[in-house]
Amino acid sequence: MRQDSHTTLEVRTSAAAVATPVLLVPFALLAALVMGRWAPLHDLDRSVSDRLHEIARANPGVVDVLTWLTHLLSPTAWRLAVLALVIWLVRRGSRTVAFWAAVTMIAGGVLGAVLKLLVSRHRPEFLEPVAQASGYAFPSGHALNAALGATIFLLVLLPMTRGRPLARAALWTGAIVLPLLTALTRVVLGVHWLSDVVAGLVLGAAVAVATAAAFSRRGVPEPVSG
Length: 226
What we know:
The structure is a single chain. The chain contains 8 helices and no strands. By secondary structure, it is mostly helical. Helix 1 runs antiparallel to helix 8 (194-216), helix 4 runs antiparallel to helix 5 and helix 4 packs parallel to helix 6 (141-157).
């Protein structure tokens, strides 16, 4: 059983080594284009935002649902969820995994806040907004923390789904759908540009897999057995 666990860890480390640059390259490109005020990207962002704002204005019921969802899937909610996961891991004796999860969530949040200040991108503005948000726009903190938290849960819980295809499919589905849904709420509500949420999603996932690779090379995080 110990050998199987070690093999799974090695495969995950190899995948993380490949996935990290694959995710960081598009983020770096987006950041460069945003900071360079590349016109085609700006035009795309404005076109998407204007169209979705029209839809939101015409469907107040949809706005109410998305407002509820954006609060439910807020950065604070994801941090609390990861905190609960950390406590659960500590109680199971998996302190190194718990430490990895906590450090990853904190590091990702700090990185996102620093990047917002560095890029200093303003949020979309409308004559009749359907929602309001403060602070800078790039990258989206909601999208970043959703991707970060979902990837943490995926990496920690995936080893427990061996031999349970339905549970594995449900875990993957949640890890993909929840961050995408979070990102959608931010753009439809008009508080982020499309490129903001795309950058947040890829950066959040990149931070999680990068720290997983770093910790794995030191022998952690160990997969949690059922």
